[in-house]
Amino acid sequence: MQxxxxxxxxxxxxxxxxxxxxxxxxxxxxxxxxxxxxxEVHLKDINGPKGGxxxxxxxxxxxxxxxxxxxxSTTEDAYEGISLxxxxxxxxxxxxxGKRGExx
Length: 104
Description:
Blueprint: E1 2-7, H1 15-32, E2 36-45, E3 55-63, E4 69-75, H2 78-97
Parallel strand pairs: 1-2
Antiparallel strand pairs: 2-3, 3-4
């Protein structure tokens, strides 16, 4: 599975943030294996230096032969947003692909 990270203005992709993304997505890769071709990670800071819950994270999984599965969150912290979006994406994929991966 390929992971494509797309940071927008206001987001600095540090090694620690990139590692956090890969750690969170590793669980999805283990669970759904080769049924996913790619996950795209879109990160952006909605309102710049104003602060508040403005870090938007969108995860878009590409299952083979199916429509993309999407999960999003907006939080004060990019790490929290990635974790929350990854949990949401897992639920979406379980519904779409089956809890045990039996469909497909």
